[in-house]
Each structure stands twice: as C-alpha cells, then as structure tokens.
Inverse folding.
C-alpha cells in the first residue's frame, strides 16, 4: 500500500518531490511550538508524517488532495514551519503537503496596488519582489524570512506596522483554495461588498482545516515619503499604556506603537538597544507624506510629553526600528533549556492592564517563573499584549512529560484568567494544536457553526485533523 501511494504522488509531482526519508520526517515534525521542541531536545520522537510531498501548481495540490481523500489519509499543509502553536504538526501521521515550491509572484498590479502570488512564497521574497516596483506589502513580521504568505493568511498573522496597514486579514483582496474534495475555488475579486458572507475570511484563519490556500492577491502600499520614529520613557506601564491609548483613540494613525513593560525595558531594551533606564519604554512611528507626518507626530509627542519622564528623541526610536527583529532571535531570545510560552492576548483598553497584572501575578506564583510583555499591535478600541512566561531551567522538570504538564498548566490557567477578564487568545499566532481545546470555550454556541462548516466541506476529516478543535 505504502509503495502504491508513493507512486501515485510521484506521478503527480515527480519522484524527486516526494520524500520519505527520516531526515525529512523529523524536519516536518517540529515547528516553533515549545512542546515538540523539548521532546526532540530530549531524544523523544514526535509524531511524524508518512509522506512529504512538494507540489508546484494548484492542479498538483488538487491531485494530492484527491489521493488523500481516496485513502482517507490525514493531510497537513506545511508552509515555513515557524508557527508557535503546533498548527502544522502531523499529529495523526499521513501526508505533509509542503508549499515551498509554490513560490511564484504571478502579477504586480501598479494601478490597483495589489500583488498576486502563490502562497508558498517566503514573505521576505515577496516583499523584495514588490519593492522593485517601489511598492511594499507593509507586512513586517519578525518571521518574515522563515514564514510563508499562506502561513500568515492561515494564522491571521501580523507585522510590525499593522497599526496603520492592518493584519493579513485586512490585506487580503481575494484567494484561490483547494477544498478537501480536491475542487479548486476562487473567492470574489473584491474584499468589500454586500453580496453575502465574506468567503475570504472563511479560509483566512482556518489553519488548513477547511482547504489549502494556493494563490492570494493582497494589497500593496507606496513606499512612504517620510518614516519617523521617536521614543519616550515613562514612570510605569500605566502611564505608557495610557499615552498609547490616547494616540489611538484620537485617531492619529501611527504605523506602530510599542510599549515594553517595566521588566522588558530593563532587560531587553537594555540588551538590544543599549538604553539603560528604569520605567516603561514607548516607541512610536508615523509615516506617509512629510507634511502630514509632521502634524501627526507633533500631536502624538504632545500627548506623550504630558506624562513621560524623558523624551529619548528620534535616534533611540530609529534604533528600535533598525533592530526590531533582533528581539526574537539568539542571543536575545529565550531558548531551551528554558521553558517559555507566548500567550498573545488582545483586549479593549479598559481591560488590558488588568489582564496583564492578573496573568503576571498568576504566572509568577509558579517557582522560577517570570512574566514579561510588550504591547505591540494597537487599534482604536484596544491593543495586543505579547506576553511570555519563562521558566528558569532549574525549575523545568527533566522528564519531558512532567515538563509538558507544568508548561500546559501555566498556559491553561493563564489563558483562563485572560478570558475570564474579557480578553481573547490569540491575536495573531493562531490556535493550532496548543489551544485547540479552548476553541469551544472561546466561541461559545457559535462553535457549532464552525463544526457544521467543517463537516460539510471535509466529511472524512482529512484536512489538518484535530486543529482548531475541529
Ligand atoms: C522568530 C519568530 C518570530 C515570529 N514573529 C511573528 C510575527 O511578528 N507575526 C506573526 O504573525 N507571527 C510571527 N511568528 C509566528 C509565525 O511566523 C506565524 O504563525 C506564521 O503565520 C506561520 O507561517 P508558516 O508559513 O511558518 O506556517 P506553518 O507553521 O508551516 O503553518 C501554520 C499553519 O498554517 C497552515 N498553513 C500553512 N500554509 C497554508 C496554506 N497555504 N493554506 C492553508 N493552510 C496553511 C498550516 O497547516 C498550519 O496550520 C513568529 C515565529 C517565529 C519563529
């Protein structure tokens, strides 16, 4: 049976694009989720796929899906494998459909300011291509070099400048997808209409459970005439958060606001930017036409200066922009043997600070654990908190099962504290395997609608089974 299926895949994509080696299987069994990483680190094999298939075209994807359907084999789409929630892990074996050969830019439209590309393209490559037209996707996530367009759509990803340009779900114009029965569909050519429900948004955020997005058209933006940053120190988290809130509710349209809590300020801001201060560091950025930026930035500065303890000026804001990705990579990021969980939480302005302190208090009640956060993606009603609990290696049990139990317990209890206090998880990391159990709780009775859609599109449950609680 195994060799028969193998030859069917080889007929579709060529022998050289079907892999069953142990190395490929291991590479496709660990993503950025801490649990499989610690298991692999301690010599325990995680769930592995039986086949890894690399299609190049939508038609090949459709043929692979039909084979999976015929044999009722689980099929998991794999983009960059950089998701933090275990979303791409083949927990039931079967097929990994790796999209990385689907990396072509199909059209840059300089009139509509859109780009159409295959979804396996690494986002940095897409950005570089559109830069040749003096345009930008304005999607600058820290994983820009290791995640795909499809992965960002599947998780509703977000980038550094999301406060002005939006998240992936805001950038999408239309898409093409292969359904679980192998049919190829396209969504309407425009994202705003009153012709029924929004089909784009059914697939965006669906994490490969309802189909495989094969092609997407997303918005582009002109490279701004002026991009300006400025940083401030505040006495405490509250004052910095309140300044950010006032900039947003007064609709000054910054491209970015980032507030580092008092803990991250004395550690990360000092380590990465060399700014040695206590209190909370706030940086903002404005961009667009110079004249408009000047006015917006001046008013934002006036708001900040009402409570800031120090104006660090443009240079220490620009240096944050230049070093923005460093925070997420060695030697600045936490790593094994530490245990760490990123619980990306979103809440309205009246609730976010309370959620922060409640989660912090609880996480830090565990021995050897500390809690840090920065507030990264801002709306006119609330903001996103990028918070992490970090367990010192001395307090991480040596036994991987025990370590996982402790890790899951902190995650679970902090998640409940967030939800009970009016927040939602996650804002942009998705649900994956990690939060699959929490979907019913977060959706309430509405979860039935998702289950019905899943059942009708994928009656045999082959598409990324078990993820998103489906
Ligand atoms: C260092 C680091 C920094 C990060 N920074 C950010 C950040 O700034 N912003 C952010 O949003 N995220 C960030 N992330 C998380 C990660 O980059 C995102 O979750 C991203 O969306 C994952 O994309 P991927 O291509 O790696 O997807 P994968 O991990 O391969 O897959 C993720 C999910 O998407 C599904 N999927 C993938 N492609 C498709 C497709 N074509 N059709 C349907 N389903 C598909 C998979 O089945 C899986 O469920 C970071 C991760 C790391 C490691």
């Amino acid at each position: 049976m195994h060799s028969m299926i193998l030859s069917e895949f080889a007929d579709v994509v060529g022998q050289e694009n079907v892999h069953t080696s142990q190395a490929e299987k291991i590479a496709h069994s660990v993503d950025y989720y801490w649990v499989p990483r610690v298991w692999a680190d301690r010599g325990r094999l995680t769930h592995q796929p039986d086949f890894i298939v690399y299609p190049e075209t939508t038609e090949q994807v459709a043929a692979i899906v039909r084979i999976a359907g015929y044999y009722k084999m689980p099929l998991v789409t794999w983009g960059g494998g950089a998701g933090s929630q275990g979303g791409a892990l083949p927990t039931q074996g079967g097929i990994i459909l790796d999209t990385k050969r689907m990396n072509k830019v199909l059209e840059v439209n300089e009139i509509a300011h859109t780009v159409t590309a295959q979804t396996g393209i690494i986002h940095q490559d897409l950005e570089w291509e559109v830069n040749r037209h003096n345009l930008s996707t304005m999607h600058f996530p820290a994983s820009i070099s290791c995640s795909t367009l499809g992965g960002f759509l599947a998780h509703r990803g977000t980038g550094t400048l999301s406060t002005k340009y939006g998240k992936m779900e805001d950038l999408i114009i239309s898409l093409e997808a292969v359904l679980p029965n192998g049919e190829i569909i396209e969504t309407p050519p425009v994202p705003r209409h009153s012709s029924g429900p929004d089909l784009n948004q059914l697939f965006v955020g669906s994490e490969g459970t309802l189909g495989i997005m094969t092609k997407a058209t997303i918005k582009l933006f002109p490279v701004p005439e002026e991009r300006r940053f400025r940083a401030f120190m505040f006495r405490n988290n509250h004052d910095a958060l309140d300044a950010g809130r006032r900039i947003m509710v007064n609709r000054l349209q910054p491209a970015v606001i980032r507030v580092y809590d008092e803990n991250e300020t004395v550690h990360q801001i000092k380590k990465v930017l060399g700014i040695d201060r206590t209190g909370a560091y706030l940086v903002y950025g404005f961009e667009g036409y110079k004249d408009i930026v000047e006015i917006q930035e001046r008013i934002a500065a006036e708001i900040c200066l009402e409570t800031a303890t120090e104006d660090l000026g443009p240079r220490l804001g620009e240096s944050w922009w230049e070093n923005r990705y460093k925070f997420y990579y060695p030697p600045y990021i936490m790593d094994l043997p530490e245990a760490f969980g990123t619980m990306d939480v979103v809440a309205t302005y009246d609730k976010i600070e309370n959620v922060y302190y409640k989660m912090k208090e609880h996480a830090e009640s565990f021995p050897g654990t500390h809690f840090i956060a920065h507030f990264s993606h801002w709306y006119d009603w609330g903001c996103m908190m990028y918070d992490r609990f970090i367990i010192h290696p001395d307090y991480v049990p040596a036994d991987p099962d025990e370590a996982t139990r402790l890790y899951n317990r902190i995650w679970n209890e902090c998640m409940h504290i967030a939800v009970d206090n009016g927040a939602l998880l996650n804002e942009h990391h998705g649900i994956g395997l990690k939060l699959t159990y929490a979907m019913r709780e977060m959706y309430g009775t509405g979860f039935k609608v998702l289950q019905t859609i899943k059942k009708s599109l994928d009656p045999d449950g082959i598409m990324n089974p078990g993820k998103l609680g489906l």
Observations:
- The chain has a mean pLDDT of 96.
- The radius of gyration is 22 Å.
- Residues 31-32, 76-84, 87-88, 99, 119, 141-143, 147-148, 150-152, 154-155, 157-158, 207-208, 212-213, 328, 428-430, 432, 464, 467 surround flavin-adenine dinucleotide (CB under 6 Å).
